[in-house]
Amino acid sequence: MAAEEEDSLYVLTAVLLTPAQFPSVLADDYPAACAALGLEPYAEGYGLVLGQDGAGARWTVVTEEVPQVACAIAAWDCGMESDLSPDERDIVAVLPGWPLALAVAAPGLPEPHDPVLEGELQDAGPVLTPPDTSDWGPAQRRLGADEIALQWGQWRAQVDDEVEFVESGGEPEAPVRRVLEEVRSYLAAPPPPGRIRSAFASGDSRTLRADGPGWSVVARTDDIAFVLLDEAPGEVLPVGRGRELPELLTALDGIALRPAA
């Protein structure tokens, strides 16, 4: 195989790494997600292009051309083809490995594998690997919150009048009450970028996502909230609107970061 072919990147997918939109499996906020990849948390963010070289090795190309990556992702989501070839002038880093788990491979290439870092590649840094989600922990908790946000209707349908809500005005020592107090504290002391994010839901409502040490919250501004805890493996705790939740969600949406239109 020619050296040029070995150096080519066969793009499999791409994701955004910005304060308002980043792979939450990596961390609770944008600066921490950047730190996991050895990147500076610039406000403009990055695009992460995941692919294989001609030998099948995994590589992650970090580019400053966020709009280009965003357009490609939008096209792919619509079932359209879109070529994504980052300009060398916009490339910030080429990192060995993938930070996310992918179940796909480039056709005609060997199975994806970690690159061998020899010679000039020895300074490429540690090989990226996806966070361990085999057991319940922060990464799996955040993935669970992602799933609820994505499949809100299905999760909401499981909550009916017979389900006992954890009210936002419950006992102070209750873990979910503690989480809500921590969320409320974000209003007085803004957390690191990315801890509170807002995305379009339907009509005038928004989907809110808040994360913190050991917990994740997913809510609709016109509805209820769900809480996931590191200390409660696999449990999803519903929070009824009660007297406090509507006001809290409205206030959080006011300071939440939103993806660029």
| Whole-number total of structural domains | 2
Instruction: Indicate the mean pLDDT.
Output: 89
Strand percent estimate? 15-25%
Low-pLDDT runs:
1-5
Total number of beta strands: 9
Would you list the SSEs in sequence order as H and E? HEHEEHEHHHEEEEEH
* Outline: elongated
Please outline the major beta sheet: 5 strands, antiparallel
Rg is 20 Å
Oligomer: single chain
Overview of this protein structure:
With 261 residues, this protein is α+β, with helices and mostly antiparallel strands. The chain is 26% helix and 20% strand. The chain is built from seven helices and nine strands. The strands form two sheets. A five-stranded antiparallel β-sheet has the order 5-6-7-8-9, with helices on both faces. Strands 1-2-3-4 form a four-stranded antiparallel β-sheet. β5 (196-200) and β6 form a beta hairpin. The model is unreliable at 1-5 (pLDDT under 50).
Topology:
Elements: H1 3-7, E1 10-17, H2 30-36, E2 46-52, E3 58-63, H3 66-77, E4 91-96, H4 138-150, H5 152-157, H6 175-188, E5 196-200, E6 206-212, E7 215-220, E8 225-229, E9 237-239, H7 245-255
Antiparallel strand pairs: 1-2, 2-3, 3-4, 5-6, 6-7, 7-8, 8-9
Protein name: Integral membrane protein
Descriptive keywords:
9 strands; 26% helix; alpha+beta; 261 residues; disordered N terminus; elongated; single chain; 4-stranded antiparallel beta sheet
